[in-house]
Amino acid sequence: MTGAEYCGGAKGVDTNGYPVETTGNAVLDTLEHRSSTRAFARDDNDRPVAVTDEQRAAILHAASRAPSAGAMMMYSIVSIREHATLDRLADLCDHQPMIAKAPWALIFVVDYAKWIDLFEHVGCFEPEFVERTGKAPRRAPGLGDFAIAAQDAVIAAQNAVVAAEALGLGSCYIGDIVENAEEVAELLDLPPYTMPLSMLIVGTPRKERPAIAHPVVNLVHEERYCRADAATMDAQVAEMDAMFRPHAREVGERVMDIYTRKHTSPFMAEMSRSMEWWFKNWLGK
Ligand SMILES: Cc1cc2nc3c(=O)[nH]c(=O)nc-3n(C[C@H](O)[C@H](O)[C@H](O)COP(=O)(O)O)c2cc1C
């Protein structure tokens, strides 16, 4: 079953009444009808309906087919099905119980440890190798390595999202995986030169999930970046408030909601604290 078939009930509009076009192109329709899944179907024993071996293999294969800088695959995927681990992650990721109720989680770890190990394994750090090649001796990964490795990891995660959708499954990113760095590093046995940047929960959606609209005003810039003027910001605010209805009562309510609930939240402060820890870990400090 494709995502488009699964979401056939969208009936041409999303939750905000925006037209959702079905093109007949399987990939475009899967992208168009995807939405995040936060509630998963349960079986007769009140356990989350499992993702089958075939589905897991297909999703992991799709992830591995993602573009990768130099085909270096600078990420690792930690696949988690044990309930105790999901429970712990639910707690560590800003107390989101839906994580414990998912049958499967995937953590996309930005990973340079595997390359450091390989360099060592084939002798790149040996003095004779350094002398013969004239290359610099051993160094830890830097921010340049991070820039490409992080893209590898996130692109692979998104391939998994699309593959899950195409199989009739649902998924949701969990950005809070970068919080509580010390505990997460211990829970997952993460070594230096790694960072768990992306997490997905995956499973059978409990009910149909119509796509929600995404704001697009001030998104695409022609040729040069163009900072929004007051008129553009008014249009942005109006678009977001329209999407936020029936909650939005005053102009700018959606922006204020983001400011109070996200920008100034304790979870964002914890994320920033933890990211400093993860960057030190990445740099081998
Ligand atoms: C980097 C990232 C982190 C996210 N973290 C969470 C999260 O921790 N909890 C959650 O419920 N949704 C999370 N989401 C899902 C977004 O809230 C969701 O994508 C957004 O509201 C748009 O809805 P849609 O995916 O259904 O189109 C995350 C999405 C991204 C891309």
Automatic annotation (TrEMBL):
<keyword id="KW-0288">FMN</keyword>
<keyword id="KW-0560">Oxidoreductase</keyword>
<dbReference type="InterPro" id="IPR016446">
    <property type="entry name" value="Flavin_OxRdtase_Frp"/>
</dbReference>
<keyword id="KW-0285">Flavoprotein</keyword>
<feature type="domain" description="Nitroreductase">
    <location>
        <begin position="32"/>
        <end position="203"/>
    </location>
</feature>
<dbReference type="Pfam" id="PF00881">
    <property type="entry name" value="Nitroreductase"/>
</dbReference>
<comment type="similarity">
    <text>Belongs to the flavin oxidoreductase frp family.</text>
</comment>
<dbReference type="InterPro" id="IPR029479">
    <property type="entry name" value="Nitroreductase"/>
</dbReference>
<protein>
    <recommendedName>
        <fullName>Nitroreductase domain-containing protein</fullName>
    </recommendedName>
</protein>
<dbReference type="GO" id="GO:0016491">
    <property type="term" value="F:oxidoreductase activity"/>
</dbReference>
<dbReference type="InterPro" id="IPR000415">
    <property type="entry name" value="Nitroreductase-like"/>
</dbReference>
